[in-house]
Amino acid sequence: MARRSGASRSTVSRVINGSPRVSPDVVERVRGAVAELGFVPNQAARSLVTRRNDAIAVVVTEPQNRLFVDPFFDRHLRGIRQELVAQGAQLVLLLIEEPDDYARVGNFLAGRHVDGALLFSLRVDDPLPETVDRMGLPAVFGGRPLPGPRDEGHTYTYVDADNRGGAAEAVRHLVARGRERIATITGPLDQAAALDRLDGYHDVLPHSPPHLIDEGDFTVQGGADAMRRLLERDPALDAVFAASDLMARGALRTLREHRRAVPDDVAVVGFDDLPLPEEGNEPLLTTVRQDIEGMGRLMARLLFRRIHTTGAPAAGGTDPVVTPTRLILRETA
Fold first, then answer.
1. Please, are residues 332 and 288 in contact by the beta-carbon 8 Å criterion?
2. The model scores a pTM over 0.85
């Protein structure tokens, strides 16, 4: 390629590795030679020199059947992929479905097959934050990690929405509409997003009775089942804040089965602003919008900053980024 382009070997190497210290006309000649000769860099050889793999792990603690049907993860992964493409990196998807998967994923990460990791859906006492911190792997978390017994005094880099503030805004809206018996369907209470959204509900309704609170699982069926239990305990409830749009969709399904008009009999507010397919004559959903795709891009951007910053701490020590939320008013509240 050096002979074909008329440039030195070192100049060709700089062009292939994206160095800005090469004039545009030389870059054009070298790229022409690369295309003509069909050159593809040897990734293994490059990794030996750069000590980088140009690959990022995305670790999701969710079952496979939820990951590929929940549009929340689709939007997050779309944002992450956009940033990885811009950085010339590959995405390696790792799923944790069973307890044994933690060791398998941990061994893969420890093998330095990737330059860093983006981690989602952490649970209470999840070992992953401590694992990546111990091995010195650059990491950014999607959502606030819940501290475990070994995390006291340790801060992790994470990107999250203002879950508590968004939930409080949704419940304040229901109160302003004159609703008096406002229930909530939470997410799994071993996850920070669910706990924060429940805290937002309690910020507005600190004395809400326990029978108006039911735990779901961020799925349509979980929302439908929780709504059914709420109606059994309090048939007179007149509003519900569901901590995700999928659970709100399930709540609407149960309310329709029980012949409760929405929003006349029961007002419903969700959280996420996801592009859900329409079901029959179902009303449009009032919801709390979070920029899911933008948070994915931001997570990847922060991770690359940690990877490329010499002397930066590996897993912890950076302030979290909390992005704003906004109530989107539609028909169901």
1. no
2. no
